[in-house]
Write a sequence for this structure.
């Protein structure tokens, strides 16, 4: 079975078994934050192709500090990674894989070094090597280097190991956010200082 077929079968089964949980999440968001219940944003995938990724909303609409807009329900969704479940549809559509570098914002592409751009040689994933190594709790340089290391040595064995560790990481909510922000700071480019992101862009 190829990686694509494994992704497709696993994503369809995942959608089937998590449907009740996603329904509960959607209702909780609608009650506490109103509509829409999904947050959609353009990201960059394999071969630098853009696509729209979907997540459950975790923050109230408006401006202001991300930590202030992050709701109790939203914090729980992030801690359990339930907010990422809608991305199983991205996997079904072939835009994402279960395992791979997380899809990031279009404006980051021109900020990557030549080595960092190798992360777009494979489909982006719902989880990846960087996510099991600290999720949003590690700095950008380390995170992007882990993405490239995955691309250079991806295999069935490694994917299964990453999926296994992902379950443990989710259960412990390890590294859900970076030290001082509700979301990951914005990537300003290699050797540049990153600044806090102003939108719901936690990857």
């Amino acid at each position: 079975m190829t990686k694509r077929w494994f992704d497709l079968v696993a994503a369809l089964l995942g959608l089937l078994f998590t449907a009740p949980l996603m329904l509960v999440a959607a209702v909780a968001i609608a009650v506490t934050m109103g509509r829409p219940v999904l947050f959609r944003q353009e990201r960059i995938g394999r071969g630098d192709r853009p696509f729209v990724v979907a997540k459950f909303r975790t923050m109230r609409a408006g401006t202001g500090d991300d930590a202030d807009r992050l709701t109790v329900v939203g914090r729980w969704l992030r801690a359990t990674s339930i907010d990422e479940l809608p991305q199983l549809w991205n996997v079904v559509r072939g835009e994402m894989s279960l395992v791979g570098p997380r899809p990031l914002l279009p404006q980051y592409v021109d900020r990557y070094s030549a080595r960092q751009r190798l992360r777009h040689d494979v489909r982006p994933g719902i989880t990846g090597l960087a996510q099991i190594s600290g999720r949003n709790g590690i700095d950008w340089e380390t995170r992007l280097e882990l993405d490239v290391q995955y691309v250079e040595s991806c295999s069935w064995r490694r994917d299964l190991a990453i999926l296994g560790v992902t379950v443990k990481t989710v259960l412990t909510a390890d590294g859900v956010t970076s030290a001082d922000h509700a979301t990951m700071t914005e990537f300003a480019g290699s050797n540049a200082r990153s600044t806090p992101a102003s939108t719901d862009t936690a990857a």
Notes: The first strand starts at residue 38 and ends at 44. The mean pLDDT is 86. Strands lie at 38-44, 50-56, 97-99, 125-127. Residues 3-172 form one domain.
